[in-house]
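Hi F.,

I've been meaning to write this up properly since the lab meeting, where we talked about keeping a consistent format for the predictions we share between groups. The idea is simple: the sequence comes first, exactly as it goes in, then the structure tokens exactly as they come out, then a line or two of notes. No screenshots and no reformatting. I'm using this chain as the first example so we have something concrete to point to.
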Amino acid sequence: MHILYNTLTPCPSNIYNMAKIVIAGRSDCPYFARVELLGDRLAKNLKKFKLHKLMIQPDKWDEWLHTTCAERGWEFHSSPIIWRELVDRGGKGVLIGGANEFQEYVKAYYDVESEMTSYEMRMVAAENKKTKDELDEEEKYFKSLSNPVNVCITNAASPVCYHLLHSISTGKVLGPKVELVIHLLVNSEEDVEQVTGTAMETEDLALSLLRDVKVFTEAEEAFEDCQIIIFLDEIHREEDMTMRKWYIQYMTLFTFYGEIIDKKALRNCKVLVCGNGPINFNATILARSAQKIARQNVVAVASVVENQAKSVIGEKLNVNPAGVVNLLVWGNINAKRHLDVSKCQVHGYDGAITGPSWYSVNAIEMLHDNKWLSSEFPALVSARHLKVSRIMGRSTSLSTANSISTLLKLWFRGSPHGQIFSLAVYSEGWYGVPEGMFFSFPVTMDPKGYWHVVQDVFLTPETKLNIKSSIEDLQYELGIIREDNQPSKGKISIY
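Output, unedited:
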């Protein structure tokens, strides 16, 4: 790109002896592009011309301009704004004005004009915006290397959040040297007092790695520079609410969240969608909206159901549920899913043969009851949440919080060698699941913060049939929000 200027005409030596020109504007402003390049030309050719440029992101410009003008007693409302500071005399500076006033100012003293065309101005403005975005992202990244990890928890009035706070703050989850700041996002002003009390109690734990706990009412502020966001949102479905209306409400909420994540969260942010609602559906909507976040960084938590299934197996075999490993949850976590025990092993079983802690026995062989596995077992797991809630008189929360913190620990620090877990992730076509569908798969995790789908699990005819049913269920959920109310159809091949 070639930009033509008139020959510089020197001005009296005392005009800019101790003066600095400040040019500030929106990063996407074509007029800022014109005057900043004009200023660069002057600074390059005149030793005593001091130039300082401030490029502000569009979403922050209005607030910045209002604050700057209020501090200096100016009245100005557009981009760019230019002023002259007398650095040897102090003071608030002298307002020059906007792009036109600055060009007149330069013309008067130096007989210089910009000959940039409108097209060139727009091109430079686009380059400025791209550069500013890259610089801001780079700055966020380097800050994240030294600053505490920012963790946001939505629906912070939830009992799940209350139980989650201690476990993620002790260092056992993210690591023994990882400091963190917790952002608690409330759903309404009515929850502020309660959640503020929760924040105060959390600070009273006096944990060395907990730098701060903050309460927010706006997602735009709560998601700022976050590396982890945990969604606990649930929408109660009234008796007269149609299924479609319920899903549309979830779609609206998670579309909004996704857009805010794109604007405010760090690009390496890890997002966990939890709860008793349609979390596969919610993760899908969120990933579609938060397009700047890697799709591998959005997951739906399957470990709540996985742990409930382990408890049922543990009761049946009279073993500690912690000793039940490699129990897999396929599909739509809180709806049509398949509980797969084909790889399930049991540690600590009191049988004819015992061994050290690493020794395990095959769960199917120990259960020795295919009828129970195919019928009663799934029903018992499905009823587990309601059974425990009914006994306690409230919804379960402690086990859910533990499942979330366990998943975070695995995601950040890796899973034990030889163990497989369940996680709903963005499908790339594994096992015939359509690409782009959030589906619960068997996964392992490495300490670098990545999960890997285990791709060599043998599928029985029953498992294939149930996976197909789960796919159709998720297709129905995604189709119910369409205006024609028809789920997308397609051939499903499970392998």
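Notes:
The first strand starts at residue 19 and ends at 26.
The chain is about 45% helix and 20% strand.

If this format works for you, I'll send the rest the same way.

G.
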